[in-house]
């Protein structure tokens, strides 16, 4: 995988983590699910831009 793609993926994960409103999900399972869904959305956005 190229360095640029790794940087984009890391940036997406970072954004997903910082975008998380941890007051909304009230337990660790819901927080994990929320972060995972957000990361997937960000990854898809980046993947579509790079195609």
Summarize this structure briefly.
Helix content is 76%, strand content 0%.
Explain how this protein is built.
The structure is a single chain. By secondary structure, this protein is mainly alpha-helical. It has one domain. Helix content is 76%, strand content 0%. The protein contains 2 helices and no strands. Helix 1 runs antiparallel to helix 2. The radius of gyration is 12 Å and the shape is elongated. The model has no long low-confidence stretch (mean pLDDT 75).
Q: What brief labels describe this structure?
A:
0% strand; mainly alpha; 51 residues; 2 helices
Give the SSE layout.
Layout: H1 3-19, H2 28-49
> Stretches where pLDDT falls below 50 for ≥5 residues?
none
- The overall pLDDT average reads 75
β-strand percent reads: under 5%
Biggest sheet, open or closed, and with what strands and sense? Answer: none
Overall structural class, as computed from helix and strand content, comes to mainly alpha
Q: How many DSSP helices? A: 2
Order of helices and strands: HH
Distance between the termini: 15 Å
Q: Using the CA coordinates, give the radius of gyration.
A: 12 Å
**Counted beta strands:** 0
Helical percentage: over 70%
> What number of structural domains do the residues give?
1
* Global geometry: elongated
């Amino acid at each position: 995988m190229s360095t640029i793609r790794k940087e984009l993926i890391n940036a997406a994960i970072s954004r997903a983590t910082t975008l998380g409103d941890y007051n909304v999900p009230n337990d660790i399972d819901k927080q994990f699910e929320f972060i995972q869904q957000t990361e997937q959305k960000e990854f898809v956005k980046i993947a579509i831009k790079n195609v």
